Fold this sequence. Notes:
This protein is of the alpha/beta class. The chain has helices at 14-18, 23-27, 29-32, 74-93, 104-121, 141-147, 165-168, 174-180, 192-204, 220-229, 234-243, 261-274, 296-316, 333-342, 357-365, 397-409, 412-428, 431-443, and strands at 4-10, 37-47, 58-62, 65-73, 130-134, 154-157, 186-189, 211-213, 248-252, 283-287, 324-327, 345-348, 373-377, 390-392. The strands form 2 sheets. An 8-stranded mixed beta sheet has the order 3-4-2-1-5-6-7-8, sandwiched between helices. The chain has a 6-stranded parallel beta sheet with strand order 11-10-9-12-13-14, sandwiched between helices.
Amino acid sequence: MGRLVVVSNRVPSSSDRQQPAGGLAVALQDALSHGEALWFGWSGQQIAEAEASNRKPSEETVDNVTYATIDLTHAEFDGFYQKYSNGILWPLCHYRAGLMDYSRKDREVYLTVNHLFAQQLRPLLRPDDIIWVHDYHLFPLGQALRDVGITNPIGFFLHIPFPPWSLMKALPGAERLMHSLESYDVIGLQTEDDARNMNDGLEQCGVQTRGQVFPIGIDPASFAAQAKACEDDFDVQRLQQSLRGRPLVIGVDRLDYSKGIPERFHGYEAFLKRFPEHKGKVMYLQIAPVSRGTVEEYRRLKQDLDETAGRINGMYGDFDWTPIRYITHPVPRHLLAGFYRLADVALVTPLRDGMNLVAKEYVAAQDEEDPGVLILSHFAGAAPEMEDALLVNPHDADEIADALHKALTMTQSERQERWERLKPDVWRVTAGSWARDFIEQLVRVERG
């Protein structure tokens, strides 16, 4: 095997290259640690149109990994990233076609940037490299690489859901996108549902390539150790002292309409209304860092959450108790591990999610002698392998309320039994096994 070449929309920042803080960098940490590797993508910087003709990849090597990045123009960033990737593909893949704001111009910019990636990556490639492309921003990159003469094995992994063809075909040019997937030698998705949806679409378009299931995981042993080590952290202790003996319910999500946070707030409100014995005796901390704050849908979502949290706190709170603690700035990963271990309940209720690693992190972080309870949406990709969580429909506020009451009144023995049944799958399917299984299959590819 030659180098592993990872291609993603965004390359980790300099601060994340030595000690990854989350996302794809953490998931790929093990895979990138074996032998020489190259990671290629956007730098996160925007340049003027006049500078575009002279751009070349900027390279930095950290240990065994070379990070190669290119800048995008303001127009490329807007059309490729903001409007098409996140304004069209993201809502569509999360079953929210009504939020699409389609423009043929944006589609052309999306395709142009994928060809730019191919052209800029080509000189950096070696004949024995294997190439692993990641996520919806780069659906057509495999075809773009073939168009510039690349014959290396190329794999593609989709980290988000893939919708049924009946929904996917609402995208203008959907058949062209499906045909571009034929250039990949291996295609990976998170769940059986996602693979079935993609394969049905490929079949409808006469494409032979088949999507396969490669569920992603975390590094549970490392996360568990981090959670335990953070028990005595100053900020974890500060949170614990502020609870004054009350149980803690925690939610951790990027602020996005796919995460079901408004529905979760309504479920918590129903819980306070239907089970008044918990009023003043439980604390709910929702951490929701703002993302894509310049996009109108996300601005409206934040305004809705601000208003809902304020209304619930005003209606149910007291002079010495605030029902919802709601923060929209990031919390460092090590602190999250400590917060998870402290929390009695985790609310993980996305409306649709590729996998959702928060659910797995919460299980890994628990004290086996006194574990908390995971409340999980049926629509999280993790749900089929985590059936011993309290599974809920996030659209049903009363179902969330019932689950919260059950979790907070559950006996220690039942909590332990549920955690013991959840633990094996979290330890079995890890970030390392996910990457290893995918790469092993890609290595076996022989192209004529």
